[in-house]
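2024-03-11 09:14:02 DEBUG pipeline.ingest accepted 1 chain
2024-03-11 09:14:02 DEBUG pipeline.ingest length=118
2024-03-11 09:14:03 DEBUG pipeline.predict start
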Amino acid sequence: QVHVVESGGGTVRPGDSLILSCEVSGFSVDTAIMLWTRQAPGRERQWVIGITEGGSNLYYKESVKGRFSVSRDGAKNMVYLQMNNLTPADTAVYYCGKQGAALNSDYWGQGTQVTVSS
């Protein structure tokens, strides 16, 4: 059974760092392109960053280059999103999931809220 759960969100100040975790069961994160997307209130979901099977980061938003990075731990079957120098524009619900899977499928989690505020 496929299950994806994000965690690690919270409220931080501008300039702070945060690490989001994505726990996966039912498929291997080592053999999938895993993505992080986000959705701010009143806005459409945005593709942010991903990681290929080979471990390379895929950047979908110019604004996160140099600040965000994705890694994974195949032994734990987990994916991580490291976010540095956060800004209020990064405030959103962050979702982890498998590339190609429908957003309303079990291959995407329920999201974790990140709020950046002074």
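2024-03-11 09:14:41 DEBUG pipeline.report The chain has no helices and ten strands.
2024-03-11 09:14:41 DEBUG pipeline.predict end
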